[in-house]
Amino acid sequence: MKILANDGVSSEGIEKLEKAGFTVVTEHVKQDELIDTINKENYVGLLVRSATTVRKDLIDACPNLKFIGRGGVGMDNIDVEYAREKGLTVENTPAASSQSVAELAMASMFTLARSTYDSYKEMPKNGHSEFKSLKKKYSKGVELRGKTLLIIGFGRIGQALASYALGVGMKVIGVSLQEEDIEVPIQIEGVGEVVSTITTTTDLKAALPKADFITMNVPKPADGKSVITSEEFKIMKDGVRIINVARGGVIDEDDLLKALESGKVAAASLDVFEKEPTPRVDLLENEKIANTPHIGAATTEAQGRIGTELADKIIATFK
Q: Which part of the chain is CATH 3.40.50.720?
């Protein structure tokens, strides 16, 4: 049985699948050639990340395809319910990348707090001739300790992020679909595990004015509307810093630019964009935005876990 990992898969995943008798192909196939290739090569499984889409036309045109796997959390590039109605198994790997995405969000908070994302660009160009003016430009940094972090979406990634934030002395507010008490473990080297209990809230608008930092950890709503728009920006603190490591579009990009221009938002960090893989130039060039190219899960450890988790699910499906 042949599996096409069209957006790649870790060596650990390949090894596990090959030991179970599968053939794994990682050569990328262009989207418009995918249906013909799947049928010609008789692939029974298709693994994707965010680059490849799996829509109704492909599902209908590939009768031998039995398994669709998404390496990562969001499955908005797959017509999941339709595929399942047609009898296909559709799986993702929600737990595998939580740690890595949380660490990127944490790193983003540090870089926004001290404007290092901008100084790293400016120093090579102007540090020799404008050292004093750059020092003045970056003289209004803030500390994370004692600040309030609002985590919008308190699932696996949100809870992993809360553990880091609590560890550096931040206050954490979690927003979720229902109010609940969630135990968040904090690992302390030489001490062991300390547990903090976070009581989540469903009232986003009541939580927004309390936040010094905000992270987005939610999928884009089914209706396509943004979670954060001009209405939400209005009730935030002046000088808030906001991070999106979730999905492009959960923050309205036009409204974000206006909030940055007015000073309502001091700085933002975007790992995801509405128009991937060709994000807006005005976002990429804005000196108040730290941009990364959707690398939340791009660590060796996360990719290894994603590969082996997908392999386990494929083996369970076919064996």
A: 2-94+300-318, 98-291
Q: Are 227 and 218 in contact (CB under 8 A)?
A: yes
The distance from CA 72 to its chain's CA centroid, rounded to whole angstroms, is 9
Architecture of the domain delimited by 2-94+300-318: 3-Layer(aba) Sandwich (3.40)
Digit-coded pLDDT (tens) for 218-272: 988 888 899 999 999 999 999 999 999 999 999 999 999 999 999 999 999 999 9
User: 3-state class of 61 per DSSP?
Assistant: helix
CATH superfamily of 98-291: NAD(P)-binding Rossmann-like Domain (3.40.50.720)
**Would residue 276 show up in a list of annotated catalytic residues for this protein?**
yes
Residue 256, amino acid = L
Question: Using CA atoms, how far apart are residues 97 and 304, in angstroms rounded to an integer?
Answer: 10
Among this protein's residues, is 294 annotated catalytic?
yes
Longest dimension (CA), the chain: 66
List 70, 156, 241, 294, catalytic entry: 294
